[in-house]
Structures are given as C-alpha cells and as structure tokens.
Write a structure and sequence with these properties.
The complex is a heterotrimer of chains A (361), B (332) and C (229). Chain A has helices at residues 42-49, 74-78, 95-105, 110-123, 139-151, 169-186, 197-203, 221-226, 231-236, 330-336; strands at 4-13, 16-22, 25-26, 31-35, 57-62, 65-66, 81-84, 157-161, 189-194, 206-211, 214-219, 242-251, 254-259, 262-267, 275-280, 286-288, 298-310, 313-319, 323-329, 343-348, 353-357. In chain A, strands 7-8-9-4-10-11 form a 6-stranded mixed β-sheet, sandwiched between helices. In chain A, strands 1, 2, 3, 5 and 6 form a 5-stranded antiparallel β-sheet that branches. In chain A, strands 14-13-12-15-21 form a 5-stranded antiparallel β-sheet. Chain A contains 10 helices and 21 strands. Chain A is elongated, with a radius of gyration of 25 Å. Chain B has 2 domains: 56-136 and 258-328, Periplasmic binding protein-like II (D-Maltodextrin-Binding Protein, domain 2, 3-Layer(aba) Sandwich), CATH 3.40.190; 138-256, Periplasmic binding protein-like II (D-Maltodextrin-Binding Protein, domain 2). Chain B is built from 14 helices and 10 strands. Chain B has helices at 2-30, 65-69, 72-84, 95-104, 115-123, 155-168, 183-194, 199-205, 216-226, 234-240, 276-286, 289-297, 300-303, 324-328; strands at 58-64, 87-93, 109-112, 127-142, 175-177, 209-211, 229-233, 247-250, 257-265, 309-310. The radius of gyration of chain B is 25 Å and the shape is globular. Chain C has one domain (27-195): MetI-like fold (Orthogonal Bundle). The longest helix of chain C has 34 residues, at 20-53. Chain C is globular. Classes of the chains: A alpha+beta (361), B alpha/beta (332), C mainly alpha (229). Chains B and C meet through helix 1, strand 2 and helix 9 of B and helix 2 of C.
Chain lengths: 361, 332, 229
C-alpha cells in the first residue's frame, strides 16, 4: 500500500459529484502534484486527505492505516500532516506566533520552539520578521509564513492547495524551491495541487491529472505533457491545434490522416478508417516563404490570418484549409517579414503530430 | 530572548489582575456583614451584599409612593436601624402593589393610607395589628383662575361642579386622576361617590377626565402643564409647590382626612413572612414619642408647615379620626 | 434647555465633591452590571462559539430564536423573574427578591440572548480559512475555537461592551427586582427614575450624565487593553 492512498474516494454536494471514484497512490518521500482546471476537485481532494471534510464514500489510508470513518483520533492524524491553503492565511498576531502555533497546540517546550522557529524564519527569508504583525505582510511573505508554519511541526505529509496562485514570479520560485528543499532534506512527502502545468514540470516527481472529479492520468510530468491520455488532457496541458479527421492510409507506423480534405502524415499504430483527433504543438511548426526541403513530411500552403506578439515570441494563426496555430520567435517573424494575408508554407514532422482515437460523445 | 518572556508575563498578568480584582469584588460582596447594628450613616453601608449568606437581618416594608416621595423615610430609616439592630429595606409602589407584596410575603409590614383596601386586607387574614401613626389631608388643587368655580366648596360639591363643567367644556375644565389604585385614587373614588356619581360613569364620561396612571408628583406636574384640577395629598403638594403652577382651591372637608397606617403581615396566613417580633417593634416605634415628635416638625423648615401631623396627644380631632387605642396601644 | 446646562453643572459638582450617595450608587451600578456581564459572558461566549463552530440541523432556527430575544422588554424579564424569586414563588426560599443579586439575575437573563447571538456574529466575521488553518495545524476543537475567538477579539470585546451598556442602562428589571432600596439596591437608573418621579429633573439628568460617563470610561479602558494585544 502506498504512503497515502485513496480508495474509490467520492464526494458529493447535493446532486453535484465533486470527486468520482478517485484512486490516488502517493509514495513516501515523493512530490506528487495534482493538476487540473479550476473546479476539477483539487481543493476538495486535499481537504478530504487532511480530514477537514468527510467523504461521501470511499476510504483514505495513511501510512497503512485507514483514517476515514469514525475510528481513530482525527486530531492525532492531522498532527502528522500539514496544509497550506491557496489564500495566504495568517493569524492576527506576530509572525513568530503564527509559525509557532502548531507547536503551541501540541504543547511543546518553549526553548525548543524558539530555536526551531527562528531557524525556519531564516530559511524562508524572513529572518528579522519575528515580531512583525502578520497582517502587515504582503501576500508572498504571508504565504511563506504559512509554509513555515506548516513544516515547523515536522509533519510526515505536506499538502499544498495551489499555494502560488496569485503570487509574483519571484515568490513563486522561492516557494517552489522551499518545497523542494523541504522534500529533499527532510524526506517530507508532498502533495501539491496546481493548475499550472509548467509548475508541475518544475517541481513534481509525478503528476496526477484531475478533471471533473476524475483522476484521468497519472505519470511523470513528461509523460503527461507529451503523451496526454486524451484530447481534454491535451488541451489542458497546453496542446493547441486539435483537429478532427480520419485515417485514410496506414503503413508501417506511418498514417495519413484526412483533415478537412488535406492530408497530414503522422506516426501512429491506429488502423485505416479510424476516426481520430490529432494535435500539433505550435512550436513544432516551421514557417517559410518557399516550400521547405527539410525532412519534414508535412508541408502545407497556408495564408496568414493573424499575428500577435507576446514577449519574445509571436503567435501566428494560419489557414491551411483548417486553422493552425504556430509559435515562432519574434525575430523569425521579422526576418520572414510576415504580414496578414501573406502566403506561406507551414511544415512539420510526422513525429510532431500526436494521434489519438476520437472521443466519442 | 529575555524580552519575549517579559512580554509574555505582561500579557498574561493584566487579565489576571483584572480578573482577580473583579472576583475579589464579587467575593467581598459575599462576605457576611458584621452583625452589630449598622453605623448610622446610610452612606457607610457596604456597597452590596449577597443574600444567600445573610449578614445583618433585613426587615422589609412596603410603602406607598406618595409617602416615599416626601422623603420622611430618609429620617425614619436610620433611626429604626440603630434602635432595632436590623437593616430596614423600604420598597415603594402604589397601594395596590404594596399590599400585593404583603400578600406574597415579600415584605414583613406595609405602611399605607387606604382604609377600604386595608380593611379587606385584614379581613382576608393577611394583615394583623393595624395601628395608625400620622395623618394629614388631601386637597383639591387646580388652575389659579378656577374656571369651574370650586373655591371653598366642600369636596363633594367641588367634584360635582368639576364634573358638570367638564362635561360642558372639556377644553376649559379638566381633571387628572391617579388612575392607579393608589390610596389617593381610592380617596378620589370615595369623593365621587359622595358627590352622587357612579365612578364607572365618571371614568367613561368624557375627555375632561384624564387617567394618568402615574405617581403623585408626576401627576401634579401634568396638572400644572395642562391647567387641570387634581386631588393631591398635602405633603406631596407642598413638596412640589415650587415646581408646579397649581393653586390650592378646596382644603377643608371631612372626606379629606388621610390617615397613615402600619400593618404587620400575618405569618399564619403568609407562611413566608418573617420577623414578626421586628414588625411589632416597628409598629410600636412608629407610635413612640420619638417618632411622633419628628413627624410634628418634619417639613417646617423647608415648607413653612409640617407635611404630616402626629396622632400623639389626640392631635386628630375630626370625624373619621382613628380611635385612641388605634394609635396608642402597643402591639404585644 | 436650561435644564441640560444646569444638569451638566450639577453632574460636575457631584463628581468633584465625591458626593457620598452618588458615589455609592455609581459604584453599585458598576459592580452589579460588571458582575452581570462577567457571568453572562462565561456562559454565552462558549455557547456562542460552540454553536458557530459546529454544523447541525436546525442551526439556523436556533440562531433566529436567539436573535428574536435580543429585544426582550425589560419589564417582562423583571416580572417573570419576580414571580420566580418572590417569597411565594418557587425560588422564594433563596430570599433573592429586593437584593442586588436579583438585579444581577435579571440583567444576566436580559443580555444573554444578545451576548450569545452577537458572539456568533463576531465569529462569523472571521475568515473561514482561519478555522481550517487552526485545524490543519493540529488544533483540537477547543484550541481551534480559542484561535477563532482570538481572531475575533475586537468584535467580541465590542459585544461585551454593548452587553455591559445594556445592563447598566436598564431600569425596568432593576426597579422591579431590586426595589430601589436606599443604600442597598439603588442604582443609577432607578435613582434617575425616582428623581424624575419626584420632579427633580436636573438631578435626574445629572445622574444620567454620570451614567453615560461611566459607560464611556469602561469602553475606553476595554479598548486600550485590547490595543495592547
């Protein structure tokens, strides 16, 4: 049995199903992120694990013992965990008192308290802040305090619910680094939820995708990122250019997919005739003025419909008979002298095209 | 490091000190009072005491508002407390409520001035050993202009005239009644009866008759404001004279006699009445020379005439005055 | 209008000269109402906290009922308590009528609904995340309630000040239960009612001013103490 395991966990609120037979297994010492769009049930799941709410059905096992159901002391179980919430929550007292709170409720000795708390304050970069009123902190500082407060009691499991939502990039980085440090140095098991795929990639050992209350895919970030289980996951993890079509020809792993009358070559084992959804990463498409003579098997004539620049990159929407979103550097855009209405060639490798069987219904 | 500890101590000590002070105050209130007679000044009474652990025994009487408002008790109270070695608690209310306190046994004696109600009270067995200790008179006061023309009539005649004039022109002639079953109110009803009118008829007869439902003082104020006639006892009238604009119009009449009586609560009927010996001592003390002399002089300095008349030495010589034994024979 | 000015002058005189009777009456008012608020708070703050903290069926109904009793008429409370503690009532043997304890009982009953209901209101004002934070930090129920109360301390103290104000300024129950006995159960409000009845409006106003002054001082002290935290 895994360190933290849920079995057919369900949560209902009236007629709505918030979590649907979730089977989660988190190993000791790993950082596991739960990703999913807003409303997927991430907060619900974490609150159930932390025993803040009761599940409608199913069980949770922690370190081999069942913690759901009326048996056992809820408070004792909670004392082995800690949670950081999305909204930085601090008590209306000093920073020191905030961080020391979990020790206070456990009745620890004041001397050991002090060293630990001050040490932690240094670690999170708020060394001189002990006497400051916590309410005067910025969001980022408050969240760091919340994090320190969570780890001060040396829990076995740390839960974080979108801890960096709405924080500035500097603080986001800092908190991610702190979480990883705590995980590595203390062997602290971490379950973190986020809607930011990039964050999951940076931080997680494994990722679980939660959509509409269902755990639809679990794996290493790379797996999920590059091989999403279905189109919806694909859309969530940033896959653009989802196109529908059907396979007209298949031979030795190479298929030809008919999409709105145009042929696209892709790599897949699916048979001819299968209805499929394909997607292409915008950054895998190359634009050129002339037919490209690269090894790319797909080379389509298109017309530029729109250009928009975001930072160092430029998003170009082209019409090749079907819409295609292309991501190139700003510099390339300038060099190619791109403009609306211009005719270009869009080329991409067969291996850049992901093919999935079509989701019926 | 040290500063943190000091802060902690400081933070904890303030609420502890406050709690201790408050608890101390409450508990001090609980401490039984010394059983010796109270030091005469009322002001040096302990601020409060909790009765569950009684200290000095407390002797409670109920009296009427009009008697209370004259301030006579402020003099009598410390005298009795010193003499009897008890605490004298005086509550005041209209005659009806005062007698009710008696019936419930919440007080051990009542001091009232309503012969009819007293008779019933005693007949029902609630009261015993009634004695009288003072008397004065009622009067009819009203606007100096006297629109109803009642000056120097008899009480009954005056009332009849007010009734007739008021029915005719309620804006010009009005009458304010206590309307609260007090001793004064009872006397008023008697006078209406003597005037040949049924009280229920008078009550409903018209807007000239105003039932105030207030104490004697507030009613006098009201009469002053509205230019109405009013029946008042001489003591309250004198006490309020400087504050109101009413003139005494009818001062003589047998019906105006107002006798103050003290009645002890009968412990046979009212099981919860206590302190009968103290009540008896109280009754006898009211009839004593000491008190009678005080009453004779009370109010002279301030109002030019006494507010009450003692019964001692046969001071009351008109019809309706109490019999000799009612104001001289001590209670055994 | 003149009366108000004269009342102010008299109030100042009474305070400066430390008129014995006024001092005695004022201390008694303070003592009785302070006892009332302490006793009521000892019950109502924990009960209010528990009601707020737990979810149960009929919670809303309970809170509504509590709020209905905010405006208990003081004479009604006075009358009901009187019937109980009168010597001929069920609790007559305790000899409570016409004592300061009776006034305290009346005032406690009067302010209990308000204290309970508004404690719940004060706690509602605390962010729900505080409760979660306390619980996930390992607090037990009592510890979590204490944490929430601490967060709401300003509002809770405000509620206490309000309760104290209502207790010290009510007259109906104090009169009926205490009897306004000179030197024993006379408090500022009953003294004011007596002086009004006697026609001494200036003295009544003066006592009223002193009453307001006391309430103000208590409120200021409570707030100063709170700031320290």
């Amino acid at each position: 049995m895994a360190f933290l395991q849920t079995v057919d966990l369900e949560q209902r609120a009236g007629a709505a199903v918030l979590l649907n037979r979730v089977n989660l297994a988190v190993e000791r010492g790993e950082i596991f992120t739960v990703i999913g769009p807003t409303g997927a049930g991430k907060t619900t799941l974490l609150r159930l694990i932390n025993l803040l709410d009761r599940p409608s059905a199913g069980d949770i096992y922690f370190d081999g013992e069942k913690i759901t159901g009326s048996s056992g002391d809820v408070v004792q179980v909670r004392r082995r965990m800690a949670m950081v919430f999305q909204k930085p929550a601090v008590f209306n007292s000093t920073v020191y008192e905030n961080v020391a709170y979990p020790l206070k409720v456990r009745g620890y000795h004041e001397k050991t308290d002090r060293t630990r708390v001050y040490g932690l304050l240094d670690t999170i970069g708020l060394g001189g802040y002990a006497k400051r009123k916590a309410k005067t902190l910025s969001g980022g500082e408050a969240q760091r305090v919340a994090l320190a407060r969570a780890v001060v009691s040396k829990p076995d499991l740390l839960l974080l619910d979108e801890p960096t939502a709405n924080l500035d990039p500097g603080t986001v980085k800092m908190i991610e680094r702190l979480v990883m440090d705590f995980n590595r140095e203390r062997g602290l098991t971490v379950i973190m939820s986020t809607h930011d795929m990039q964050q999951a990639q940076r931080v997680a050992g494994r990722v679980g995708v939660l959509m509409n209350g269902r755990l639809v895919q679990v794996g290493r970030p790379g797996d999920v990122f590059f091989s999403p289980g279905n189109a919806r996951i694909a859309g969530f993890v940033g896959m653009r250019n989802l196109l529908k079509g059907h396979i007209v020809h298949s031979k030795s792993g190479i298929v030809v997919v008919d999409v709105d009358g145009r042929d696209i070559e892709a790599v897949s084992d699916l048979p001819a005739g299968a209805a499929v959804e394909i997607f292409i990463r915008p950054e895998d498409v190359v634009l050129s003025k002339l037919t490209s003579d690269s090894s790319a098997r797909n080379d389509l004539r298109c017309i530029i419909r729109s250009l928009s620049s975001n930072g160092p990159l430029c998003t170009v929407i082209v019409d090749c008979g079907f819409p295609l979103e292309v991501l190139i550097t700003d510099r390339s855009a300038v060099e190619l002298e791109l403009s609306q209405g211009q005719e270009m060639y869009a080329s991409f490798k067969a291996s850049a095209v992901r093919v999935l069987p079509s989701m019926q219904g | 490091m040290k500063t943190l500890l000091i802060n902690r101590i400081r933070r904890i000590s303030i609420p502890i000190v406050i709690t201790c002070l408050l608890l101390g105050a409450i508990l001090a209130g609980c401490a039984p009072a010394a059983p010796q007679p109270a030091a005469t000044e009322n002001a040096s009474d302990q601020v409060t005491a909790f009765p569950i652990i009684p200290g000095t025994p407390r002797f409670k009487i109920a009296t009427t508002t009009s008697l209370y408002d004259t301030g006579l008790w402020n003099y009598l109270e410390p005298m009795f407390e010193k003499k009897a070695g008890v605490k004298l608690d005086i509550v005041y209310a209209g005659t009806g409520v005062a007698l009710e306190y008696g019936r419930r046994g919440d007080v051990d004696a009542v001091v009232v001035h309503d012969p009819a109600a007293e008779a019933k009270f005693i007949a029902d067995g609630y009261g015993i050993n009634k004695r009288s200790f003072a008397f004065n008179h009622f009067l009819i006061a009203g606007p100096a202009a006297d629109p109803a023309g009642i000056k120097d009539l008899t009480p009954e005649q005056a009332f009849k005239k007010i009734y007739d004039a008021g029915m005719l022109d309620p804006d010009k002639v009005k009458f304010i009644s206590r309307g609260d079953n007090s001793g004064t109110h009872s006397k008023e009803k008697l006078i209406w009866q003597a005037a040949g009118l049924k009280y229920e008829d008078v009550q409903k007869s018209g807007p000239w008759y105003i039932e105030a439902g207030k104490g004697m003082g507030p009613c006098l104020l009201m009469a002053s404001e509205q230019g109405s006639y009013i029946l008042a006892d001489i003591s309250t009238f004198l006490a309020f004279k400087s504050k109101v604009n009413v003139a005494p119009l009818v001062e003589k009449g047998d019906l105006f006699l107002n006798v103050y009586d003290v009645i002890e609560i009968n412990p046979e009927k009212v099981k919860t009445a206590k302190m009968l010996p103290t009540a008896k001592a109280f009754t006898n003390w009211l009839m004593s020379d000491e008190v009678q002399d005080l009453i004779a002089g009370y109010g002279v300095a301030e109002y030019g005439r006494p507010l009450f008349n003692p019964l001692k030495g046969g001071g009351c010589a008109e019809a309706g005055c109490p019999k000799l034994e009612d104001y001289t024979v001590p209670v055994q | 209008m003149q009366e108000i000015w004269r009342a102010l002058v008299q109030a100042v005189n009474l305070i400066i000269s430390l008129d014995t009777e006024v001092v005695q009456i004022s201390l008694r008012s303070l003592y009785i109402s302070a006892s009332s608020i302490i006793i009521a708070a000892l019950f109502c703050v924990p009960i209010g906290s528990l009601i707020h903290f737990h979810d149960f069926r009929g919670k809303r109904v309970v809170i509504n009922v509590i709020q209905t009793f905010y405006s208990l008429p003081t004479v009604v409370v006075g009358l009901l308590v009187f019937l109980f503690i009168s010597r001929s009532g069920p609790l007559g043997g305790l000899e409570l009528l016409f004592t300061p304890a009776a006034i305290i009982i009346g005032q406690v009953i009067l302010i209990m609904p308000m204290l309970t209901g508004m404690t719940i209101g004060a706690l509602r004002g605390v962010d729900k995340t505080i409760r979660d934070t306390a619980l996930s930090s390992g607090a037990g129920t009592a510890q979590a309630i204490r944490a929430i109360l601490f967060e709401a301390r300003f509002a809770v103290v405000g509620v206490l000040i309000l309760g104290f104000g209502r207790a010290i300024s009510e007259v109906g129950a104090a009169l009926m239960l205490g009897g306004n006995i000179r030197g024993y159960t006379r408090v500022l409000t009953t003294a004011i009612s007596l002086e009004t009845q006697r026609g001494d409006l200036v003295l009544s106003l003066a006592l009223g001013i002193i009453l307001i002054g006391i309430a103000m001082v208590v409120s200021v002290i409570m707030n100063i103490l709170l700031q320290r935290y």
